[in-house]
């Protein structure tokens, strides 16, 4: 008999041994149910909606369509995704697309259980309070004070303190540092979710600025530490004033 909180699992993996190992692990956990196994991401793409999985264990390196390509085209919202890969560098691409966890091959059973636990924790938090997800992710980052941006064909590490402000450019974001800028394919919403909310704030629907880099404010205009003048959107004016009042000497 299935438990009330059973997670329906699908495996998309073209390596036979890795596939068999994941199947074995799923069957060892009473609260998991294997509803489908695929060695082809294209085939899985068409059949996944009918299986209604809660969790997808997704390989990265597959013929025809890679795991990252699969995530890029699969409709949102999608099930919780756990990447399986032999290359930890692939985890960065996956987290940009909202995966829950990644498992480094060869996958151990205790690490598999940890991933399942993270899925349950995430599902529980999102059900009770969606806004708490951001707080949990911030907590998990701990001492990490940087983010990776994809520029051209490389990933570039940028420390939060280096970011002065960022502005939207259509489907791209232009990130201004003290001495240069970089352009990355990203939405402002995703950037806002990535940056620490106690250090950055949105001052316009198309602009985010780091609080410590605000040098002055006059009317609807902010001046940054690097001299740029930024316009505050009408809908953000009160929030900006409230944030700056916290450090007002009076």
Automatic annotation (TrEMBL):
<keyword id="KW-0597">Phosphoprotein</keyword>
<protein>
    <submittedName>
        <fullName>DNA-binding response regulator</fullName>
    </submittedName>
</protein>
<dbReference type="Pfam" id="PF04397">
    <property type="entry name" value="LytTR"/>
</dbReference>
<dbReference type="GO" id="GO:0003677">
    <property type="term" value="F:DNA binding"/>
</dbReference>
<dbReference type="InterPro" id="IPR051271">
    <property type="entry name" value="2C-system_Tx_regulators"/>
</dbReference>
<dbReference type="InterPro" id="IPR001789">
    <property type="entry name" value="Sig_transdc_resp-reg_receiver"/>
</dbReference>
<dbReference type="GO" id="GO:0000156">
    <property type="term" value="F:phosphorelay response regulator activity"/>
</dbReference>
<feature type="modified residue" description="4-aspartylphosphate">
    <location>
        <position position="59"/>
    </location>
</feature>
<dbReference type="Pfam" id="PF00072">
    <property type="entry name" value="Response_reg"/>
</dbReference>
<dbReference type="InterPro" id="IPR007492">
    <property type="entry name" value="LytTR_DNA-bd_dom"/>
</dbReference>
<keyword id="KW-0238">DNA-binding</keyword>
<dbReference type="InterPro" id="IPR011006">
    <property type="entry name" value="CheY-like_superfamily"/>
</dbReference>
<feature type="domain" description="HTH LytTR-type">
    <location>
        <begin position="147"/>
        <end position="246"/>
    </location>
</feature>
<feature type="domain" description="Response regulatory">
    <location>
        <begin position="8"/>
        <end position="120"/>
    </location>
</feature>
């Amino acid at each position: 008999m299935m438990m009330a909180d059973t997670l329906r699992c699908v495996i998309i993996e073209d390596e036979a041994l890795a596939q068999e190992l994941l199947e074995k692990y799923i069957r060892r956990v009473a609260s998991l149910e294997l509803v489908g196994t695929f060695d082809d991401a294209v085939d899985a793409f068409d059949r996944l909606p009918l299986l209604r999985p809660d969790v997808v264990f997704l390989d990265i390196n597959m013929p025809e369509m890679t795991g990252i390509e699969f995530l890029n085209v699969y409709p949102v919202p999608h099930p919780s995704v756990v990447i399986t890969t032999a290359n930890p560098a692939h985890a960065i691409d996956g987290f940009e697309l909202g995966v829950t966890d990644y498992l480094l091959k060869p996958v151990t059973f205790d690490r598999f259980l940890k991933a399942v636990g993270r899925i349950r924790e995430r599902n529980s938090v999102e059900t009770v309070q969606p806004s708490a997800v951001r707080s949990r992710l911030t907590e998990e980052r701990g001492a990490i004070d940087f983010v990776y941006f994809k520029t051209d064909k490389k990933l570039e590490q940028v420390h939060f303190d280096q970011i002065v402000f960022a502005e939207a450019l259509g489907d791209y974001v232009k990130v201004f540092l003290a001495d240069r800028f970089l352009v990355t394919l990203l939405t402002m919403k995703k950037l806002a979710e990535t940056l620490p909310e106690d250090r950055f704030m949105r001052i316009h629907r198309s602009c985010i600025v780091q609080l410590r880099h605000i040098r002055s404010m006059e009317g609807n205009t902010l001046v940054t530490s690097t001299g740029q003048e930024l316009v505050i959107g009408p809908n953000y004016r009160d929030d900006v004033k409230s944030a700056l009042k916290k450090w007002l000497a009076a």
